[in-house]
Design a protein that fits this description.
By secondary structure, this protein is an alpha+beta fold. The chain has one domain (22-79). 49% of the residues lie in helices and 32% in strands. The protein is built from two helices and three strands; from the N terminus they run H-E-H-E-E.
Length: 81
């Protein structure tokens, strides 16, 4: 019985340690031509303050934003857990 408990405990610990590894999440937004500036204004007003607070709390390690064209935006978030 002790051997089974030890195996289960080892499994749970290894799963817990794997869950603590940082990972990245990418969000892609397709924006109608001519509305990119409006999208960015709304993003900065509505989404960015929330992400900034999550970064302050340590839930997000890094944030990067990029654009490949005037009609597309990519947001990459690296999270702690």
């Amino acid at each position: 019985m002790k051997k089974i408990n030890l195996v289960i405990l080892t499994f749970l610990l290894s799963f817990s340690l794997k869950a603590q590894q940082p990972y990245s999440v990418e969000y892609y937004y397709k924006v109608k031509w001519g509305y990119f500036d409006e999208f960015m204004d709304l993003y900065k007003k509505n989404h960015y303050p929330i992400l900034k607070e999550l970064k302050k709390q340590g839930e997000i390690l890094d944030m990067k934003a990029s654009t490949s064209s005037p009609a597309a935006a990519a947001i990459v978030l690296t999270s702690a857990s």
